[in-house]
């Protein structure tokens, strides 16, 4: 765990944190715009205007070009880029994944990053792509770990931060093992590498598996960087899973391809009739003007950066208010593969429940997937805390005169089920839900109610059944001892 990372607010596995670097403190979650030392669509000195606190560039590219190398060694990385804030440098691992080899060693590139004054250095790890055979993934992971151990011995003191990339391809076992081993060695930041191919092919559900497995092997307070994740559509999801830093070349690459980024997807500028954004670029240009502008690429890059950092602020506010999971559910409905990722994320609700704050503002039910949220799981796990004796009324309607005839009055609210009416204003039972529940929320509610009845065999329950709460599990309730279902028309 890094002593330079302080968590100041949490929601789900996401958090607002402060990462201390030699060139200043970075508030997370945030995005590091990727700077190509050879070709800059937007100058690094302008990046703060968009909201950037930290940049990332490639030390291998700088090293290979003599002019850049000599200037960086003489004046320092920050002078080279004309940026006075924190800068992270990659090691050439991306080039290794693309071309199969690089012209530096791990020791050489670590030494070079120290000499040019980078804030966060990355060793030369091996980014094993998805779906390779297990043996290759394991062998390359072993090499990566040895290189990271060597790098850790080379970098000491309180200066430059050192990243420990978590590898392991698409094998959850290897990802968790990698993260656990690196935690024992001790790094300042833990990037999750070789995930770009998953995002390029819209395999967001597999990305969820990689993140969850890696997080399970780390100290929960360790800062995490998701390499190559630059599209705002998936920030909320990744942050909810515990990622703190992202890097984006998408703002420039998409602009070069005339693509216009939004938080719910990407549009080709040629197909836009209107600009659905209020950034300076979009307020000063019509869709037609943007399309025909001689500097269209630069304008698109600027828009893409504005909308990227806007989404970062939206995510931060959601963490602060305690409704990050509601934002995730909204964003994940922008694409079928993102919805698949949402469903996969909630298969890890038992893990999320351990890190999710127990108290927030209000639970908003956003659809069937909400039935699998960690708050619902926590409620089910704590049903044994309710002791019910004597007669108990379960109702879904407002209080009535009949309440006084029972020793206990319970409220029935999907997806939670039945709970004492004294808790109606307590999170998450103060939930805002739909009046006509869907099948999934009713199923979870009835399963919890059945469990509650089984935990209190001495109590006698009467359930006033509303028509909109009909479900096959009602038959099981009706067959239980000391349980009576009453329909309004037969009262």
From TrEMBL:
Residues 13-336 form the tRNA-guanine(15) transglycosylase-like domain. Its EC number is 2.4.2.48. Substrate binds at residues 125, 194. The active site is at 90 (nucleophile). SUPFAM superfamilies: Pre-PUA domain, tRNA-guanine transglycosylase. One of its GO terms (molecular function) is zinc ion binding. It holds the Pfam family TGT. Pathway: tRNA modification; archaeosine-tRNA biosynthesis. Its cofactor is Zn(2+). NCBIfam families: arcsn_tRNA_tgt, tgt_general. Belongs to the archaeosine tRNA-ribosyltransferase family. This is tRNA-guanine(15) transglycosylase. It comes from Methanolobus halotolerans.
């Amino acid at each position: 765990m890094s002593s330079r990372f302080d968590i100041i607010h949490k929601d789900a596995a996401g958090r607002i944190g402060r990462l201390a670097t030699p060139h200043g403190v970075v508030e997370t979650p945030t995005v590091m715009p990727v700077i190509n030392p050879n070709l800059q669509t937007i100058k690094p000195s302008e990046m703060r205007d968009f909201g950037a606190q930290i940049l990332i560039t490639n030390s291998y590219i700088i090293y290979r070009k003599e002019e850049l190398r000599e200037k960086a060694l003489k004046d320092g990385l920050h002078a080279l880029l004309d940026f006075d804030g924190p800068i992270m440098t990659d090691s050439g691992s991306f080039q290794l994944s693309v071309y199969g080899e690089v012209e530096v060693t791990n020791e050489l590139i670590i030494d070079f990053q120290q000499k040019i004054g980078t804030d966060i250095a990355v060793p030369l790890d091996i980014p094993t792509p998805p779906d390779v055979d297990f043996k290759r993934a394991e062998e390359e992971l072993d090499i990566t770990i040895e290189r990271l151990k060597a790098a850790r011995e080379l970098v000491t003191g309180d200066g430059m931060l050192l990243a420990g990339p978590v590898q392991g391809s698409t094998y959850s076992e290897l990802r968790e093992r990698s993260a656990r081993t690196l935690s024992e060695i001790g790094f300042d930041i833990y990037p999750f590498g070789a995930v770009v191919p998953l995002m390029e092919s819209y395999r967001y559900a597999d990305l969820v598996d990689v993140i969850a497995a890696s997080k399970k092997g780390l100290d929960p307070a360790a800062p995490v960087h998701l390499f190559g994740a630059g599209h705002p559509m998936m920030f909320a999801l990744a942050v909810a899973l515990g990622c703190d830093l992202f890097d984006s070349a998408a703002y420039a690459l998409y602009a070069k391809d005339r693509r216009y980024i939004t938080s719910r997807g990407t549009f080709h500028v040629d197909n836009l009739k209107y600009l659905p954004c209020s950034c300076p670029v979009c307020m000063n240009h019509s869709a037609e003007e943007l399309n025909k502008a001689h500097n269209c690429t630069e304008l698109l890059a600027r828009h893409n950066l504005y909308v990227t950092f806007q989404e970062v602020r939206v995510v931060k506010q959601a963490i602060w208010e305690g409704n990050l999971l509601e934002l995730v559910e909204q964003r994940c409905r922008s694409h079928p593969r993102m919805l698949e990722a949402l469903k996969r994320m909630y298969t890890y609700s038992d893990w999320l429940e351990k890190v999710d704050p127990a108290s927030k503002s209000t639970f908003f039910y956003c659809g069937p997937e909400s039935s699998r949220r960690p708050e619902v799981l926590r409620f089910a796990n704590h049903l044994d805390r309710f002791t019910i004796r004597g007669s108990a009324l379960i109702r879904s309607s407002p209080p009535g005169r009949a309440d006084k005839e029972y020793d206990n009055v319970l409220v029935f609210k999907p997806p939670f089920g039945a709970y004492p009416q004294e808790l109606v204003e307590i999170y998450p039972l103060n939930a805002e839900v739909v009046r006509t529940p869907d099948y999934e929320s009713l199923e979870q509610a009835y399963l919890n109610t059945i469990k509650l009845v089984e935990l209190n065999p001495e109590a006698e329950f009467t359930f006033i059944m509303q028509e909109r709460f009909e479900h096959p599990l009602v038959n099981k309730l009706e067959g239980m001892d000391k349980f009576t279902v009453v329909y309004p028309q037969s009262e």
